[in-house]
Amino acid sequence: MSYDIGDLLRVMQRLRDPDTGCPWDLRQDFQSIVPSTLEECYELAQAIEHEDYGHVAEELGDVLFQVIFYAQLGSEQNLFSFASVVDTLVEKLVRRHPHVFADGQIEGVVDDGTTVELVNESWENIKQAERDSKLQRGVLADVPVALPALPRAQKLQKRAARHNFDWRSSDAVLAKLQEEIAELRQAMRADSGAEIAQEMGDVLFSCVNLSRHLGLDAETSLRHASDKFERRFRNMEAAAEQAGVEFSTLTDSEMDALWEAAKLSLR
């Protein structure tokens, strides 16, 4: 027997049943499950990065459950339903892909070919029309404030770049990054906490800009760097333990030696 989406919706209804449901699920509201939603999305991203596709399927289920949970809450409060979520999504996908769905019909086929560049241009024009209809006049009007800092910075920069506010080359961005680092050094010499924090933010923002100009996703690059650091650090700890030495008692030069050895062994 295989379960389907109807079974999942029913399970969610049962979990939220006031008389026979789960006490934990009954206590939740829109705000309380947001941390779980973010956590599930990051766990999905991690499984994909590790190419653990069996785990990807499981994590996709966890993410889908979050959608079902919100839909149940919306239904209980007469705000929206799972059906309206699906209806809104399908309508939006069809509307935003006129190069695929002829005459706005799911089975409508467009005969003329297109390119990624034309698709991106059309997508942005459609998005701008949607912003206009919502009276979101500014170029940056609908960039979510709740996004994590790195992807939000990248999204702000990409949006501005589409309106010709951008550096002309990655070399120019690198020069700007070096300028921001120099200003950070100056703030550090002045020992001004507020100024240091501001200049550090400018350095990070410039790093995101450079990443974008190099065709890289800043969030993905940093996640990979963090994973690499963790692997190397664990290798150092293991080496210290094997030598019978407490890691925290190592000198700087001993730690440097272990770090270089970890880099070689994990290369």
Describe what this molecule looks like in 3D.
This protein is an all-alpha fold. It folds into four domains: 5-96, Helix Hairpins (Orthogonal Bundle), CATH 1.10.287; 103-133, no CATH class; 149-216, Helix Hairpins, CATH 1.10.287; 220-266. Helices cover 69% and strands 0% of the residues. It has eleven helices and no strands. The protein has helices spanning 5-15, 23-27, 34-49, 53-76, 82-96, 116-133, 149-161, 170-190, 193-213, 218-242, 252-266. The protein is globular, with a radius of gyration of 25 Å. The relative contact order is 0.05. The mean pLDDT is 91.
Give me the secondary-structure topology.
Layout: H1 5-15, H2 23-27, H3 34-49, H4 53-76, H5 82-96, H6 116-133, H7 149-161, H8 170-190, H9 193-213, H10 218-242, H11 252-266
Helix pairs in contact: 1-4, 3-4, 7-9, 8-9, 10-11
CATH superfamily of the largest domain: MazG-like
Straight-line distance between termini:
47 Å
Estimate percent helicity. 55-70%
CATH architecture of the largest domain: Orthogonal Bundle
* N to C succession of SSEs: HHHHHHHHHHH
- What is the molecular shape? globular
Task: Using brief descriptors, characterize the structure shown.
single chain; 267 residues; mainly alpha; Helix Hairpins; 11 helices
Briefly say what this structure is:
The chain has 267 residues and is an all-alpha fold. The chain is 69% helix and 0% strand.
